[in-house]
Write a sequence for this structure.
């Protein structure tokens, strides 16, 4: 009986929860039966009381901008039995989990698990898990952000590290992401495009291992020198292949711009600048997989400049194709060979000059350390590579993603009943200013009296 002040069990008849009878309180697990519709009026509070409301039928919860619906102290769970298709709007909800398709808009969530083919727009979400074919756009997301299934995440302000879950085939585009992306997903295939990505912690801004990924047209800017802009790692002996395309990105402000180890990677048309090391390539054949001499990495048509070192190369039996790049104006070395006695060839690049002597001075190889092989850099290109990106002349700044135009309540206090919190004055009141002024004036008067007394005493002492 859900007309009582508290209830539990299966709701078997369609009903409306009215503002007049609010609040409604669960005293045990509760479900809405299949074929049953519960409509919640604006202004209603549902105290879940540590339990959950399971929706096998239909729950219609549509508040308004001035009268929100509150689901507090528990979970609302839409199961696959629910027909979905409804709108969940203008609520303040502790936890919403849906395996069916909903339109979820203008809410505030402590946690949201959006599955099915749900559309999630204009919400404030502390902890997000997007799964199925859900589409998540124009939200403010903080604390945690997990992406699974074939979810699409676009045009959000994400103040957390975005993590792809196992087997994900999702797409992340046009977001501002303040703590990077982690993609270690056991064979998934993801797309990361047109995002502004920076960091709070020292982790790689984009980390990829054991996955197929396309990383294009992103602005990746490190703050406080994080370890790496894009880190691609794997094992050639693993059954799960790491295969990544990195194209048309700007990467700066990191210890290493792009780090590649034991992966199949194509790096094209990127601007890699203002890092300690532009690109690091570490290639090691494992149990002859792939066979020695295989070329798993291509570095082409990139501009690699204004780093301490441009490219650091450790081939170990495998090779990379490094050609048609602008590798110049790196302060210590344009190219550095590491831990190999083998000679390598990096022909057909532009080095900022046509003088082979000047080019050689900025290549670290046998000529600097006889334990290393020699770098053959000829023939050289005599002009900048056409189609390679320009290096920006100024330090990049992050411009924020446009916030939702219609905002839910910001950081509401979730209680059993809606409460109104009095607003605090943003500045001192006039009375507070007057008291401060009076105190200062009294202090000055006391100082003046003390000084006058001191002067009189000094004059009397002189007369004596």
């Amino acid at each position: 009986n859900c007309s009582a002040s508290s209830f539990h069990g299966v709701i078997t008849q369609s009903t409306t929860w009215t503002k007049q009878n609010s609040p409604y309180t669960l005293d045990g697990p509760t479900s809405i039966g299949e074929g049953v519709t519960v409509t919640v009026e604006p202004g209603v509070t549902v105290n879940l009381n540590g339990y959950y409301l399971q929706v096998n039928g239909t729950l219609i919860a549509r508040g308004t901008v001035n009268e929100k619906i509150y689901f507090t102290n528990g979970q609302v769970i839409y199961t696959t039995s629910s027909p979905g298709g409804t709108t969940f709007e203008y609520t303040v909800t502790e936890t919403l989990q849906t395996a069916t398709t909903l339109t979820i808009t203008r809410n505030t969530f402590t946690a949201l698990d959006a599955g099915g083919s749900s559309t999630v727009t204009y919400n404030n979400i502390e902890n997000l898990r997007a799964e199925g074919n859900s589409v998540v756009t124009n939200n403010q997301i903080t604390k945690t952000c997990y992406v699974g299934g074939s979810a699409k995440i676009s045009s959000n302000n994400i103040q957390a590290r975005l993590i792809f879950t196992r087997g994900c085939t999702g797409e992340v585009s046009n977001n501002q992401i303040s703590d990077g992306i982690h993609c270690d997903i056991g064979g998934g295939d993801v797309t990361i495009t047109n995002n502004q990505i920076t960091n709070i912690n020292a982790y790689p801004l984009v980390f990829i291992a054991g996955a197929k990924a396309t990383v294009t047209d992103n602005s990746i800017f490190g703050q406080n020198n994080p370890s790496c802009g894009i880190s691609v790692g794997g094992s050639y002996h693993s059954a799960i292949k790491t295969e990544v395309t990195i194209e048309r990105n700007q990467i700066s402000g990191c210890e290493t711009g792009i780090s590649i180890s034991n992966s199949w990677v194509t790096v094209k048309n990127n601007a890699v600048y203002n890092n300690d090391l532009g690109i690091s390539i570490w290639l090691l054949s494992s149990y002859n997989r792939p066979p020695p001499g295989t070329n798993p990495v291509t570095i082409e048509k990139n501009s690699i400049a204004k780093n301490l070192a441009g490219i650091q190369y450790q081939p170990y039996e495998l090779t990379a194709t490094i050609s048609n790049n602008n590798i110049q104006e790196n302060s210590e070395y344009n190219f550095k060979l590491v831990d190999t006695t083998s000679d390598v060839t990096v022909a057909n690049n532009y080095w900022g000059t046509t003088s082979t002597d000047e080019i050689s001075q900025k290549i670290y190889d046998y000529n600097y350390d006889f334990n290393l092989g020699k770098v053959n850099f000829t023939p050289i290109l005599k002009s900048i590579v056409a189609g390679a990106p320009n290096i920006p002349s100024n330090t990049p700044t992050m411009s924020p993603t446009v916030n939702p135009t219609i905002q839910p309540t910001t950081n509401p206090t979730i209680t059993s009943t809606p409460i109104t919190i009095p607003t605090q004055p943003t500045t001192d009141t006039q009375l507070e200013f007057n008291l401060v002024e009076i105190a200062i004036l009294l202090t000055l008067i006391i100082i003046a009296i003390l000084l006058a007394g001191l002067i009189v005493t000094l004059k009397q002492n002189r007369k004596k």
